[in-house]
Amino acid sequence: MSQSVSNDQIIQSHYKIQAEKHKESSTSTMEDVIIRQKELESIYTFFNLRDVRVICNDVLEIGCGNGFTLEQLASKYPDTKFHGLDFSHDLLNIAAKRKIANGTFSQGDVRKLEFADHSVDIIYTERCLINLLSWEDQQKGLSEIHRVLRKGGYYFMVESFTDGFDNLNKARNELGLGNIPVAHHNLYFDKELFNSFIAPLFSIVEGSALGSDSNALLPNFLSSHYFSARVLHPLLTKGDPNLKNTEFVKFFSFLPPSGNYAPIQAHILQKK
After folding, report:
1. I need a labelling partner for 197 at 20 to 30 A (CA). Which of 187, 217, 236, 271 fits?
2. What are the residues whose beta carbons fall under 8 Å from the beta carbon of 199, sequence distance 6 or more?
């Protein structure tokens, strides 16, 4: 059995469990409610940007899961066509039950998108490309996203990177806490490799350049939450670093982002 087939089976098995456990819930694939809320806020903020609205006719969500996010966006923007793509048949079976007048769903693979060149205005992903378990496959995914986007189109990525993750574990180690491991079904992007690869394909755009003054569109939008939830909380309680949704963590969820302590980051890429 090839390594790629083995990796694909890991992903299919993981999301089969997610589909059975969470069904149509908004927290499917992300049980930390603060992370999920802030991710959704970042996506909604991005779609509200003036420059995005001007070109926002055809939108593709890659890794749409159970369809929750796409359904919310389709309701807010009835004149925009949305399409959700996912690798997991189990999650798509749930998404397909949603009645969305301006949205459709299909099974697909980001490494080989069945869309024409330059056919989509906006693409977004939410912890999707980190499910490609080799850098080679991640490069294929990024290349396909670039191919399908129209020139000047935007790719909004909410994905995980090693720089914030390494800083998080460094902060934990300084306080006598052990490392948090990367989940078995994830491979985080190496920021240096990532930036080098996308340089000829995309320009990195700051949210402020598109008219946003929202913390939701800062790359480190989850940094303060990760520090409070994965460093301060387990330090005080001597508890499980993966314990989620406690009152302590909710209390500090209002903090603006500071530092670089979150693996999950938001980046706006514009096709050159």
Report:
1. 217
2. none
